[in-house]
UniProtKB/TrEMBL annotation:
SUPFAM superfamilies: Glutathione synthetase ATP-binding domain-like (SSF56059), PreATP-grasp domain (SSF52440), Rudiment single hybrid motif (SSF51246), Single hybrid motif (SSF51230). PANTHER family: CARBOXYLASE:PYRUVATE/ACETYL-COA/PROPIONYL-COA CARBOXYLASE, METHYLCROTONOYL-COA CARBOXYLASE SUBUNIT ALPHA, MITOCHONDRIAL-RELATED. Its cofactor is biotin. This protein is a component of the acetyl coenzyme A carboxylase complex; first, biotin carboxylase catalyzes the carboxylation of the carrier protein and then the transcarboxylase transfers the carboxyl group to form malonyl-CoA. This is Biotin carboxylase. Residues 122-319 form the ATP-grasp domain. One of its GO terms (molecular function) is metal ion binding. Pathway: Lipid metabolism; malonyl-CoA biosynthesis; malonyl-CoA from acetyl-CoA: step 1/1. Residues 575-648 form the Lipoyl-binding domain. The keyword ATP-binding applies. Pfam families: Biotin_carb_C (PF02785), Biotin_carb_N (PF00289), Biotin_lipoyl (PF00364), CPSase_L_D2 (PF02786). It catalyses: N(6)-biotinyl-L-lysyl-[protein] + hydrogencarbonate + ATP = N(6)-carboxybiotinyl-L-lysyl-[protein] + ADP + phosphate + H(+). It comes from Cycloclasticus zancles 78-ME.
C-alpha cells in the first residue's frame, strides 16, 4: 500500500525545484510538468523527466486537473506533490488523485474541504474548542443580516471571502457607513476569484502579530507541532519577511499555541504538513485564523531551526511511515529569517513586473540558504506569481540572522527587471523590525508612510556617473577627441529625474562632469561577467551591472539597485505624446472592460481591469474626456505598451 517510486511535482518555480531536490535525495524518480512559458525553466531541467501540460495560462496548465492527472499516468508517476499555490489546496484535485489511484502528497480531500472554507473551518474549530476571532459565520448572506451581525461584532471589522486565500478577498471596514459598499465589492471579488460569493465577518484585531504553527501528522494517528513562525511583516495581508522562532515567545505560550494547533489538525483527521495560523494579541490571547493544508512558502525557517527536512517528512508520511520524532524530541535551535524576493516595482505601488533576467547571482555564505527557481536570461512572464526566490539566513541569535541576511541580500543580484531588493534591505534595517515590535499593519500604516515623508533617496552621484560611462560606451555612440581624451555628452533618466553629463575617458580612467559642476572620477580596474571592479573617487568597490537593448542599464551597488535610461538629446522628459489615451502598463490579461466607445469619463474612473501575476490592477482615466476607441476585449492577452483605450479630452476636441 502507498507504494511509489516516481513523483510528479504539479508546480513550478522555486517550490518545484525545492521538492525535486529532496525527492531525488530520497532516491525517488521525479517528473516535472511545464507550461509553454516554462519550457526552459529550472525545475524542468532538474527533474528526471518533464512533460508539457499546455498553454501558459494557468487554467490551461498548472490549474488543469485533467491534464496533470493524465501527465502522471503517462509518465508512470504513482504520487503527486502539489507544492503550494495552484492545486495544492484543491480538495477536488486530491479526490481526483485518490480516484486515479495516485498518492496525493498531502492530507485527504475531506480535511482539505473543511479547512479550505473559512466558515466551515470556524465551525469545526468551535467544536474543537480552538479560540476563534469573534465574528459571524452563519449561512444567511443577505445585507440586512450581515449589517445586524456587523453591529453585534463591532467595528472595525474584516469582511472575508469564505473560500479566499493569498491575502485576497479581505477588506477592513472601519465604520458602518462603508459596510454595504464593501460587502458588495467583496462579493464580486470573491465570486470572480474563488467561484463563491460566501462571506464571513470577523472582528478586526488591532495590534496583532501573525503567529503560525507548523504541524505534522502521520497516517498512524500521531500529530506534532514543529514550533512557530512569526509572519507579522506583511503588505496587503501577504507575508514579506518570516522568521522562526517568534521573537519573545516563551515556552508556556508556545506549548499552548502548539497544543491548540494540534487540536485543530486532529479535529479534521489531518495527515501530512499543515500550518495553523493565529493572530496573537498584546495580552497573549490568540485566535485561529485559518489552516493552510499544504507546505508553506516560509517552511525553510522551520527547517533551519529544527534541522529537519519537511519535504522528506511529507514523502515519508505519504509512504505510510510514522513521524520520525515525537513531540518531546523536537528541539528548536537558533533563529532563522526569510525574505521573499519579488519582481515588483516598489516605487510604483508594488506592481508586479515582467521582463528578462539579465543577471542573477545568488549569495553564498555561512548560514545562508537560497530557494529559487530562476536562471539567467529567463523571461518572467505575466502568467504566474512574481515571487522569484527566497533568501533565508540562520544564526545562533536573531541579531546574527538579521545581519547575515542583510549581507546576503546585498550580495544578491537580480538585474533586468525591478525587484523588491532595496525595499527588503530597508525593512531588515528598520528599528521596529529589529526590535521585533512590528504588528501585521506595521508596513502599511507606519513604515511606508514614514518612507514617503523622507525626501526620495535617489541614486547617488557615483551611480549616475557609472550609468553615464556604461551607456556612453554602447555601440552607436561616437565620442570625439578633444585634447587627447575622449568625451561624450550623455542625457540620462532615472524615474522622473533627468541629468546631462559629460564623460571624459582616458584609457580606463573616466571623469564624469555634471551640468551642476559636480565631478566624479572613476577608474575601471576590472570587468567580467557583469561585475565591475571600480575605484570611485579613490575608493575601490564592486558593482554589478546589466545592459539591456533599449539603452537601459541596471546597476546594483549592493545597497541600491537603479535603472537608468539614455535619452537622445532631442527627447524631452515626460513627453506625453499619448495624451489621455490608455496603454497597457504591463503585459497581462484583460479581466474587465468598463467603458464602451462614446462614453464620457472622469479623471479617476476605472476603465479597464488588468490581471497580471495574480494581481488585479484597475487602470484609471488620467483626465476627463470622451472614449473614442476601445481596442480590447475581456480575456484578451495584452503586451506592455499596447494601446487599450483612446480618449479625447475636451481640450483636444476643441483643438480640432
Ligand atoms: P502563504 O501563507 O504561504 O503565503 P498563500 O495562500 O498566500 O500562502 O499562497 C501561497 C503562496 O503560493 C503565495 O506565496 C502565493 O504567491 C503562491 N501562489 C498562490 N497561487 C499561485 C499560483 N497560481 N501560481 C504561483 N504561485 C502561487
Ligand atoms: P488568507 O487566506 O488570505 O491568508 P487569512 O485569514 O490568513 O487570509 O488572513 C491574512 C492576514 O490578514 C493575516 O495574516 C492578518 O494579517 C490579517 N487578518 C486576517 N484576519 C484578521 C482579523 N480578524 N483581524 C486583524 N487582522 C486580520
Ligand atoms: Mg493566511
Amino acid at each position: 500500500m502507498n507504494h511509489f517510486d516516481t513523483i510528479l511535482i504539479a508546480n513550478r518555480g522555486e517550490i518545484a525545484v525545492r521538492v525535486i531536490k529532496t525527492a531525488k535525495q530520497m532516491g525517488y524518480e521525479t517528473v516535472a510538468v511545464f507550461s509553454e512559458a516554462d519550457r526552459e525553466a529550472l525545475h524542468v531541467s532538474l527533474a528526471d523527466k518533464a512533460i508539457g501540460i499546455g498553454e501558459s495560462d494557468v487554467e490551461k496548465s498548472y490549474l488543469n486537473i485533467d491534464k496533470i492527472i493524465a501527465a502522471a499516468l503517462k509518465t508512470n508517476a504513482q504520487a503527486i506533490h502539489p507544492g503550494y499555490g495552484f492545486l495544492s489546496e484543491s480538495a477536488e484535485f486530491a479526490q481526483r488523485c485518490e480516484e486515479a489511484n495516485l498518492v496525493f502528497i498531502g492530507p485527504d480531500s475531506k480535511a482539505m474541504a473543511i479547512m479550505g472554507n473559512k466558515t466551515v473551518a470556524r465551525h469545526k474549530m468551535l467544536e474543537a474548542n480552538v479560540p476563534l476571532v469573534p465574528g459571524y459565520d452563519g449561512p444567511s448572506q443577505d445585507n440586512p443580516t450581515l449589517q445586524k451581525e456587523a453591529n453585534r461584532v463591532g467595528y472595525p471589522l474584516m469582511v472575508k471571502a469564505a473560500a479566499g486565500g493569498g491575502g485576497r478577498g479581505i477588506r477592513i471596514v472601519k465604520d458602518p457607513q462603508h459596510l454595504i459598499t464593501e460587502l458588495e465589492a467583496a462579493r464580486a471579488e470573491a465570486l470572480s476569484s474563488f467561484g463563491s460569493d460566501e462571506l464571513l465577518l470577523e472582528k478586526y484585531i488591532e495590534k496583532a502579530r501573525h503567529i503560525e504553527i507548523q504541524v505534522f501528522a502521520d497516517q498512524l494517528g500521531n500529530t506534532v507541532y514543529l514550533g512557530e513562525r512569526d509572519c507579522s511583516m506583511q503588505r496587503r495581508h501577504q507575508k514579506v519577511i518570516e522568521e522562526a522562532p517568534a521573537p519573545n515567545m516563551d515556552a508556556t505560550l508556545r506549548k499552548k499555541m502548539g497544543d491548540a494547533a494540534v487540536k485543530a489538525a486532529e479535529a479534521v483527521n489531518y495527515i501530512g504538513a499543515g500550518t495553523v495560523e493565529f493572530l496573537l494579541c498584546v495580552d497573549q490571547s490568540f485566535y485561529f485564523l485559518e489552516m493552510n493544508t499544504r507546505l508553506q512558502v516560509e517552511h525553510p525557517v522551520t527547517e533551519l531551526i529544527t534541522g529537519l527536512d519537511l519535504v522528506e517528512w511529507q514523502l515519508s508520511v505519504a509512504a505510510g511511515e510514522p513521524l520520525a520524532l515525537q513531540q518531546d524530541e523536537i528541539e528548536l535551535k537558533g533563529h532563522a529569517i526569510e525574505v521573499r524576493l519579488y519582481a515588483e516595482d516598489c516605487e510604483c505601488d508594488f506592481m508586479p513586473q515582467t521582463g528578462r533576467i539579465r543577471q542573477w547571482k545568488m549569495p553564498v555564505a555561512t548560514g545562508i540558504r537560497v530557494d529559487n527557481g530562476i536562471v539567467n536570461e529567463q523571461i518572467i512572464s505575466p502568467y504566474y506569481d512574481s515571487m522569484l526566490a527566497k533568501i533565508i539566513a540562520y544564526g545562533a541569535t536573531r541579531e546574527l540572522a538579521i545581519r547575515r541576511l542583510t549581507r546576503a541580500l546585498k550580495d544578491t543580484v537580480l538585474l533586468g527587471l525591478p525587484s523588491n531588493k532595496t525595499f527588503l534591505l530597508g525593512l531588515l534595517q528598520d528599528h521596529t523590525f529589529m526590535n521585533a515590535e512590528a504588528t501585521t499593519r506595521y508596513i502599511e500604516e507606519q513604515y511606508l508612510p514614514a518612507q514617503q515623508k523622507q525626501a526620495a533617496q535617489g541614486p547617488g552621484d557615483s551611480m549616475w556617473a557609472i550609468a553615464a560611462i556604461l551607456l556612453s560606451r554602447m555601440p552607436g555612440t561616437t565620442g570625439w577627441r578633444s585634447t587627447g581624451t575622449l568625451s561624450w555628452p550623455v542625457r540620462l533618466k532615472y524615474q522622473q529625474q533627468q541629468r546631462d553629463v559629460t564623460v571624459f575617458q582616458d584609457g580606463s580612467a573616466y571623469r564624469v562632469e555634471y551640468s551642476d559642476d559636480e565631478i566624479q572620477n572613476i577608474l575601471i580596474l576590472a570587468e567580467s561577467d557583469g561585475e565591475l571592479l571600480l575605484q570611485i573617487n579613490g575608493i575601490c568597490c564592486k558593482l554589478n551591472v546589466a545592459l539591456d537593448e533599449r539603452h537601459t542599464v541596471y546597476i546594483d551597488n549592493r545597497s541600491q539597485v537603479a535603472m537608468f535610461e539614455k535619452l537622445s538629446f532631442s527627447e524631452k522628459q515626460n513627453q506625453d505624446t499619448l495624451g489621455a489615451n490608455l496603454i497597457a502598463p504591463m503585459s497581462g490579461k484583460i479581466a474587465e472592460v468598463k467603458v464602451i466607445k462614446g462614453d464620457t469619463v472622469n479623471k479617476g474612473d476605472v476603465l479597464v481591469v488588468l490581471e497580471s501575476m495574480k494581481m488585479y490592477q484597475e487602470l484609471m482615466a488620467q483626465q476627463e474626456g470622451l472614449v473614442t476607441g476601445v481596442y480590447i476585449k475581456p480575456n484578451q492577452q495584452v503586451e506592455v505598451n499596447m494601446p487599450l483605450i483612446d480618449i479625447v479630452t475636451s481640450e483636444q476636441a476643441n483643438d480640432e
